[in-house]
Write a structure and sequence with these properties.
alpha/beta; binds zinc ion; TIM Barrel; 43% helix; five-stranded parallel β-sheet
Length: 267
């Protein structure tokens, strides 16, 4: 795809093997692999991807004794992918509020590897409910001291309000604009909290005018490009910004890459 924009996909779940591939249609897309992800993104003009590894066990992933084993395996997979991808990939990782000590040690381990991206946190996949619990506060405070940017899946709005309120010094990027009601709550948080951002992955981006409204009401510096590949089709998300006639080229440049570069302190 021909365009002049640098693109950083802030929200992906890359994979080394089938067990960690969340694409619902991987059975027919037989050539899906770490190498294929790179070439697919290059075809779309995407220069860099960010995000954590996940598996969905009911989709044939390995089985684990507890949530911590599963999470630490995902995190190790992300470090393996980093070895393959180099500068193309900014690894994210998971923590778990039922494992506070382990989570803080994991923050140290990832920090030691140069990782500054915590998330996407996916409570619904990991067996916890809330971002605003006491245990979570200990972990996120610790991650903040280590300069981690925190990416969160959109969960219950009141819980997300409480979480953002608890962490005024944490850079928090929520994922998924969602449908009208949820999107309007995102907008309220974007306007109220200077440390709260939104990535475009998942539901919502296909609604006409959504991106224009987000930029008009929250400011162009609050919105980050993201796709949720391989669950979602990255071409649709590139197109949703690139082909939106309501958005200026300067706004596209900022949403596609500049905001991610600023938050992640990239060159
Ligand atoms: Zn998500």
């Amino acid at each position: 795809m021909q365009h002049d924009f640098e693109i950083i996909d802030f929200h992906t779940h890359p994979f080394l093997s089938k067990a960690y591939n969340t694409c619902n249609h991987k059975e027919v897309l037989r050539d899906m692999s770490a190498e294929n992800t790179l070439s697919l993104m290059q075809k779309l003009g995407v220069n860099k991807i960010c995000g954590a590894v996940v598996s969905v066990d009911s989709m044939g992933g390995p089985l684990y004794e507890n949530h911590w084993q599963r999470i630490s395996d995902w995190n190790s997979q992300a470090l393996e992918l980093k070895k393959i991808y180099g500068d193309f990939y900014i690894p994210g990782f998971h923590i778990h509020p039922d494992f506070v000590e382990e989570s803080c040690l994991e923050i140290d381990r990832m920090h030691g590897q140069g990782v500054r991206f915590l998330g996407e946190l996916d409570p619904y996949l990991c067996g916890y409910q809330s971002y605003s619990s006491e245990n979570m506060k200990i972990i996120i405070d610790y991650a903040t001291k280590k300069n981690m940017v925190v990416s969160i899946h959109t969960m219950l709005d009141d819980d997300m309000d409480a979480f953002v309120e608890q962490h005024p010094d944490t850079t928090i990027v929520a994922a998924h604009p969602n449908e009208y009601k949820g999107f309007m709550r995102h907008l309220q948080r974007l306007k109220k909290y200077p440390n709260y951002y939104l990535d475009l992955s998942g539901y919502g981006v296909f609604r006409h005018g959504m991106l224009r409204r987000a930029i008009d009401e929250a400011g162009v510096h609050k919105i980050l490009y993201g796709s949720d590949f391989p669950t979602c089709n990255p071409g649709m998300y590139v197109g949703s910004v690139l082909l939106d006639p309501l958005i200026t080229d300067e706004e596209k440049r900022i949403v596609f890459a500049e905001n991610a570069k600023r938050l992640l302190k990239l060159k």
